[in-house]
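Backbone-to-sequence.
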């Protein structure tokens, strides 16, 4: 117990030290009206170190949209001058990113171990996967589907009542390291499955008739790095000879229009697609597992943040999927269900038109593998906090997302193929 407390306090100190470097950093939101504005954003990105929050890179900026980006303290004055001189409309969303990140973590009572309403370190999540499986052997089993670049086990939880030949739904969280609300949801989903089985009709029916494969954190190395070194890290942590820049964007690393649009071939870019599809241990492990269970997996749900969107294929092209009408109707109903609890408004539609074109994503890949119900959730919020979403919002975010996930799962159960 004492060792656990020491480990938890070390994790907390690391989390705080990883945000110290963000002192005085700002997050801007800039209104982009036309091609001239887009060119100015490109110019800015070429001359300053810009960390794009939404969209993921300068290449994805569209007219009649807004761009959220984070700049270091030493660049913020010149960036503001640039925006002002070029008459770009902007607002400062976060004036001191360190303060926002420290406020995100409620330090009180943190040494009590795993909590569903706090952000948990990887060590805590790893221990939780073992514990939740051990405590619920009739509903949960744990397996390892691969190891990360740095040698960490990728744990998968299979949630459902044992029964032969069950159809399944695959849910993953934590593709992008800094999107902490995402792994929080996967943990919440497992908690709700255990808590409400045999107490709530819909969940009981879902767990009796379906298996849920839950991958709590895809990009474990990156997630650890956000706790220990750089809170804003996004990619994996793989290193390659000849490059001084680490990591690949795991959600640009799938064989779905790989590296064609909205992805970069520059290893230093946040949207680097990697040297080849599935070059990353993490994406290959996920893809191999889905391929091995392809006949039983009927839906694929991947959880990201932020934007409050429910997206379906395609993102790598402006093509519409074969069952576009069905996916659109299902997404519309799911976001209506989500909004019924806290009034949170989501937009929905095909990825390319609804958010931005991006090749190599897991949802497009899963759809092209024949999983016809394939969705990406972009959780809270729309930018007020962005990646610094406070812990006080974990519960409401997860509660409302559960409603949408259960709605989709129920639909899939009644429309098996």
């Amino acid at each position: 117990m004492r060792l656990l407390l020491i480990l938890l306090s070390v994790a907390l100190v690391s989390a705080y030290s990883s945000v110290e470097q963000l002192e005085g950093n700002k997050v801007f939101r800039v209104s982009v009206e036309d091609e001239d504005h887009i060119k100015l954003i490109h110019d800015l990105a070429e001359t300053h170190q810009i960390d794009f929050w939404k969209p993921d890179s300068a290449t994805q900026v569209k007219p009649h949209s807004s761009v959220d980006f984070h700049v270091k303290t030493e660049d913020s004055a010149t960036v503001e001058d640039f925006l002002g001189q070029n008459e770009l409309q902007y607002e400062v969303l976060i004036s001191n990113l360190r303060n926002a990140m420290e406020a995100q973590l409620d330090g009180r009572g943190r040494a009590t171990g795993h909590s569903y309403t706090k952000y948990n370190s990887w060590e805590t999540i790893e221990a939780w996967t073992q514990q939740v499986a051990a405590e619920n052997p009739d509903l949960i089993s744990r397996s390892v589907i691969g190891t990360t670049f740095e040698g960490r086990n990728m744990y998968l939880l299979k949630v459902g009542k044992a029964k032969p030949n069950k159809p399944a739904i695959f849910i993953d969280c934590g593709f992008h390291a800094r999107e902490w609300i995402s792994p929080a949801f996967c943990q919440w989903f497992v908690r709700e499955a255990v808590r409400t089985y045999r107490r709530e009709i819909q969940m009981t029916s879902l767990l009796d008739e379906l298996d849920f494969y839950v991958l709590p954190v895809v990009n474990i190395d990156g997630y650890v790095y956000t706790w220990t070194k750089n809170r804003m890290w996004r990619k994996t942590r793989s290193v390659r000879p000849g490059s001084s820049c680490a990591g690949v964007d795991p959600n640009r690393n799938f064989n779905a229009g790989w590296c064609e649009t909205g992805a970069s071939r520059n290893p230093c870019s946040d949207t680097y697609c990697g040297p080849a599809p599935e070059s990353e241990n993490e994406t290959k492990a996920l893809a191999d597992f889905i391929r091995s269970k392809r006949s039983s997996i009927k839906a694929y749900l991947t959880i990201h943040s932020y934007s409050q969107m429910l997206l379906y294929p395609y993102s790598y092209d402006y093509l519409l999927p074969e069952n576009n009408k069905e996916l659109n109707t299902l997404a519309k109903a799911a976001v209506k269900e989500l909004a019924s609890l806290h009034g949170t408004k989501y937009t929905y539609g095909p990825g390319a038109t609804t958010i931005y074109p991006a090749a190599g994503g897991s949802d497009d890949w899963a759809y092209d593998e024949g999983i016809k119900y394939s969705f990406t959730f972009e959780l809270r919020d729309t930018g007020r906090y962005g990646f610094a979403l406070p812990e006080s919002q974990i519960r409401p975010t997860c509660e409302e997302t559960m409603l949408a996930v259960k709605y989709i799962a129920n639909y899939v159960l009644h429309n098996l193929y």
